[in-house]
Design a protein that fits this description.
Blueprint (H helix, E strand, L loop, with lengths): L1 H7 L5 E3 L2 H11 L3 H9 L4 E3 L7 E2 L15 H14 L3 H5 L11 E2 L3 H4 L4 H13 L3 E2 L3 H4 L6 H7 L12 H8 L2 H15 L6 E7 L2 E7 L4 E7 L4 E8 L2 E6 L6
Parallel strand pairs: 1-2, 2-5
Antiparallel strand pairs: 3-4, 6-7, 7-8, 8-9, 9-10
């Protein structure tokens, strides 16, 4: 992660590859601290992702040589094993020596399956991404909450193909009808339209709770997450009014 911070000082934009594993860690452990530690120092001139055509990056959150990571080695190991468990072993078949891979620095799995295909946890992960500093990027497989393509993996034995599905018009129509995708599109619209996201960012919290907020001169918006209870609220103030949305309601 220190490399990302240093590189960001010298270029226009960087990818925030530490965010995806940190969100998973928070959801798996019900502990917000590592995520909050990162969001206080993460580059603001970044693109955020959760998943890509190259899988879910893990190495950026871990130790590098003698330098500590945002997560320690034991936490990284637990993170990877929990993904394998949540995906019912599918990610294990597509990762590392089990399938032809360019490297061993990512877990090959859809982000949706990494969370056990849990609609609420997946929507929460995306909400955190959208409230984190940077410009959110959503991979097409993530947009449609795709599940692991085990048939394609079996045909090619290329681990990354598990998250590179071929979709036709019927597949897309079916995905757009899913509550989790409808909820995600609502979050995307909120992120695109709310002016506070062009303002100042603040991250705070402790234990299982984190609060990610944005404000400008005339509006504010905050994501309040309790990982332990899974109570998640979006507090929105603009145009002289205020509203409160339970994240679970976006799945209704």
């Amino acid at each position: 992660f220190q490399t990302q911070v240093e590189v960001a000082k010298r270029v226009n934009m960087v990818y925030d590859f530490a965010l995806p594993p940190l969100i998973l860690h928070s959801l798996f452990s019900n502990d917000a601290q590592a995520l909050l530690n990162w969001l206080t120092i993460s580059p603001r001139n970044c693109l955020t992702v959760l998943d890509t055509h190259d899988g879910i990056g893990i190495i950026d959150a871990g130790p590098m040589g003698d330098k500590p990571g945002l997560l320690n080695a034991a936490q990284i190991d637990n993170l990877v094993e929990t993904i394998h468990e949540k995906s019912e072993g599918q990610s294990r078949l597509a990762t590392g020596a089990a399938a032809s891979n360019v490297d061993l620095y990512q877990v090959n799995c859809t982000y949706y399956n990494a969370l056990g295909a849990d609609d609420f946890d997946y929507l929460l992960a995306r909400a955190i991404q959208f409230f984190a500093p940077g410009i959110p990027q959503v991979y097409y497989g993530g947009l449609f909450a795709c599940e692991n393509d085990m048939e394609l993996l079996a045909r090619t034995n290329v681990g990354r193909d598990i998250n590179r599905p071929y979709l036709n018009a019927q597949d897309i129509d079916a995905a757009l009808a899913k509550p989790v995708v409808k909820g995600l599109i609502k979050l995307i619209q909120l992120r695109n339209e709310h002016s506070a996201f062009n303002g100042e960012f603040i991250a705070k919290g402790e234990g299982s709770v984190c609060r990610l907020s944005w404000h400008d001169d005339s509006s504010s918006i905050e994501l309040k997450v309790d990982f332990a209870s899974r109570e998640v609220m979006i507090l929105d103030q603009r145009d002289g009014g205020q509203s409160m949305t339970n994240l679970a309601d976006l799945l209704a």
